[in-house]
Amino acid sequence: MNIKEYKIAVIGLGYVGLPLAVEFSKNGYSVCGYDINEIRVNELIEGVDITHEVSSDEIRSLNTIHYTSDEESLRDANIYIITVPTPIDEFKKPDLRPIKGASKLAGKYLSQGDIVIYESTVFPGCTEEICVPILESVSGFKFNEDFYCGYSPERINPGDKVRRVHNIIKVTSGSTEEIADVVDKLYASIVTAGTHKASSIKVAEASKIIENTQRDLNISFVNELALIFDKMSIDTLEVLEAAGTKWNFLPFRPGLVGGHCIGVDPFYLTHKAESLGYHPQVILSGRKINDEMGKHISNKIVKLMVREGHRVKNAKALVLGITFKENCPDIRNSKVIDVVSELKEFGIAVDVYDPHADHLEVKHEYGIDLIKNVNKKYDVIVLTVGHDAFKNIDVSSLANEKAVIYDVKSFLPKEIITDRL
Question: How far, CA to CA in Å, does 350 sit from each of 255, 361, 370?
Fold first, then answer.
């Protein structure tokens, strides 16, 4: 079959699935975009993407993509690409329910020779050890005889308008050498930056999980430096800028490490390692440091309030930003909530403002009513997310006398802040 003759079904139309489905459609493929969320599907039919990853004009201009929540529409596909979330549960263990559910769904509609490609971040072995048995059980087909699998990890960077699906090198893999070639050619047809064909599905899975684990560890290192330098009354950013003059010093910055990738993926790797009898020390140590940064920031703010003569109980605080990163609406696993919750534990009244976040989603996820505008004065102002929109706010005008202005992101002018991370 000619590569362009494949009919593609993308299961999961979030930050990863939608841009991928759009890219295939733009390159002439017949695409079925499926999601269980009917509201999401109806919004896309109307040309609205609440993640802001794809513009309304781009969505409306494509007539080779069909958005649906009707699973019967998956029946005609030859290639199923699964892009569902892979979160962790309350015990920080992999929550595989979404990917298992998507596997059952794909299994119902598999035909002879079909290929199921996973893009969701998983631990090495998950595709073949967890997902394939589900596909076999539901379909009644035999793996690598009647149907095949591939793994091509997503590399979407939410909010990034420069690095997109087509210009980020794509890692590919397949369950046989022949299928690996098919999967590679499929992605090479839409990715102008090129592809890297891994030798196996496990190698591709492992490559993805260490991308984010490496970043998590690097940030945990500079977070630990920030904790040390805080005790020494040294400005961490000034130290990093000085060290950064060396050609091979890596430009990481301290901060809150949340989101659906960096704050989650390391637990998938450590879970697999522990199941094999190995207890990771470096990875879990880094995670522990990053998970405790919200508490450190809040405690530091309270100490600064006391130093400035503020009464802590019933003080008024403004937190600028609730999303997990700048200039995007994604609030999944945002660590800003740790700062907000800790400040409230001290009896501080906290307002949260974020022009990018969806008010209803924040209320549902975190029980917080975002304020719609900032027009009061506060005893504490905390910049937690560096949205470009915050450049237009005169933070000083919102501050009471001797107000504590704390900058988590080194975003605000140094002369107006009390301290920064």
Answer: 20, 18, 10
Q: What are the angstrom distances between the C-alpha of 108 and each of 82, 102, 127?
A: 14, 10, 17
Report the residue count for the chain: 421
Separation between Cα atoms, residue 91 and residue 201, nearest integer Å: 27
Tell me, yes or no, if the pTM score tops 0.90: yes
> How is residue 147 annotated by DSSP?
B
What is the Cα–Cα distance from 106 to 82, expressed in whole angstroms?
Answer: 9
Residue 86 pLDDT exceeds 80: yes
Closest CA to 335 of 351, 356, 319: 319
The separation between CA 324 and the C-alpha centre of its own chain, rounded to angstroms, equals: 8
Give the span between the Cα atoms of 270 and 291, in whole angstroms.
16
Kindly indicate the confidence band of residue 63, based on its pLDDT and cuts at 50, 70 and 90.
confident
Whether residue 260 is predicted with pLDDT greater than 90 in this model: the reply is no
Catalytic residue among 126, 149, 261, 328: 261
| Residue 261 annotated as catalytic | yes
pLDDT 10s digits, 105-160: 999 999 999 999 999 999 999 999 999 999 999 999 999 999 999 999 999 887 77
DSSP state letter for 388? G
